[in-house]
């Protein structure tokens, strides 16, 4: 990148009528978006770390109410986990097709990923409604408050991810696999795999350990 300096004004000279650009060349640093997105993911890691820590402190405070062993339906949660992990695989297929520049196949795998994500959210909402109907809402105990906050925050991230995915599908359909769209697909890929990683922690720390006596 080269710097262009404007000539100094001497005497009573008038300033140039045309704008002078002191920095020539591209203003967007190479890979700057990916670096910035990594910084965002690290900040999101801190949010989930705080939520996990909160659940670790409050997860056994039942207030004479039901525990995880009384409430959690592990087969249902296992199916839900399978849907999210499978969606990560299908997104990986979309990225492979992107390298081959096959727009139609990219759109197909993105659509399958979105459907699996919607299936995950549907089962999660079913679980929440079922718990609330049983009187195990977030206000029932500290355990349930921390549970709904942690799992609900993850579900909210998945919801935003699906909205982002649909938006990208529209962009790819309109403009194709231009460099900007390829970069956006890479960022969403990191975000989606990050959500899978967080859910593995939720499934292990909240559900599996929650059914232990």
TrEMBL record:
The chain crosses the membrane at residues 37-57, 77-96, 108-126, 146-170, 191-212. One of its GO terms (cellular component) is plasma membrane. This is Cytochrome bo(3) ubiquinol oxidase subunit 3. It is a multi-pass membrane protein. Heterooctamer of two A chains, two B chains, two C chains and two D chains. GO terms for biological process: aerobic electron transport chain. Belongs to the cytochrome c oxidase subunit 3 family.
